[in-house]
Here is the input.
Amino acid sequence: MLEVKPQDVKPASGSAAPGGAKASRGVPPGGVTIAEAARRTGVSVHTLRYYERAGLVVTPIDRTSGGRRRYRELDLKWIVICTKLRATGMPISGICRYAELVAAGPGNEKERLALLESHREDVLAKLAEIQENLKTIDHKIDVYRGSLAAGDADRLWAPVSTGTPETPAARRE
Here is the structure.
């Protein structure tokens, strides 16, 4: 996972942000509006405001003299990281903890690593479960394709009354 630190930010050269989002491409020195930040990161304006209220951002979001938010390249990259963590199932509390650690600066890297490794294990477990579920779906698809090709799809399993509600008759599937 990319660790975003202010000293690591380089001028945008048309490269994509982590995960393929073009979040930071061509961010002007004065930043971008909340609407543009939403477009670039793929989250809603509401989500951006929520992330800020929930303490998920690592630096204060700049504001214009009129109070409007201005998102810098660093902000956009961090938001992409947060959305990737969230999309992989990390609870808001976990993202908040990670943001707190990053915002605190050097000295807690082992704790950051432990948090990310734990999340990675959770993601791997979910992927394994999804793979098992996919095997069941693939089997069902094979059954339907085979039955349709053989011309006997009408014999696939369907609930059929047998007179006793406890034991419905079933056809193969």
Notes: The longest strand covers residues 62-63.
